[in-house]
Amino acid sequence: MNMATENEKYEKFLKKYHLEELTNASDLESVRKIYYENFGTGLMETGLTIQNSVWNKDIKSEDMLMVYYLRTIMEQNFIMIRQLERISKAIGGEPEPKKPSKMEEYLRKKQEAARNEK
Question: What stretches of the chain adopt beta strand conformation (E)?
Answer without folding.
Answer: none
